UniProtKB/TrEMBL annotation:
It comes from the Bacteria. This is Uncharacterized conserved protein. Belongs to the YciI family. InterPro entries: Dimeric_a/b-barrel (IPR011008), YCII (IPR005545). Residues 1-105 form the YCII-related domain.
Length: 113
């Protein structure tokens, strides 16, 4: 099952820095096990553009909404047997301590859905 793993910042990171996981080791292990299909770090929020259409009008603004404190800083596309395995992969990611991880399965949109 495929999961999108959103890697997000957080205003309250884990203060315990002992045994902090290494991102290169995390990537290498999950790539080798075939659980991480792709992933990358995103540019700073100052490079973001938000696009909306309201009442037929295109609204384009720089960055995320100003009140946003936690932002998506990266992503990984996972292939896991189930949610429990995806949680285990996310638990060992360094940003699970420095930020937060959101796991979301891909929707199964069969024709007619």
């Amino acid at each position: 099952m495929k999961y999108m793993m959103f890697v997000c910042s957080d205003t309250e990171p884990d203060a315990d820095r002992e045994n902090w996981p290494d991102i290169e080791a995390w990537v290498a292990e999950n790539d080798a096990r075939g659980r991480r299909l792709t992933g990358d770090v995103l540019a700073e929020t100052t490079a973001a553009t938000t696009v909306r259409v309201r009442n037929g009008e295109l609204l384009v603004s720089d960055g995320p909404f100003t009140e946003t404190k936690e932002v998506i800083v990266g992503f990984d596309l996972l292939e896991c047997a189930d949610l429990d395995e995806a949680i285990e992969v996310a638990r060992t990611h360094p940003m699970a301590r420095a930020g937060r991880i959101e796991l979301r399965p891909f929707a199964d949109l069969a024709p007619g859905d």
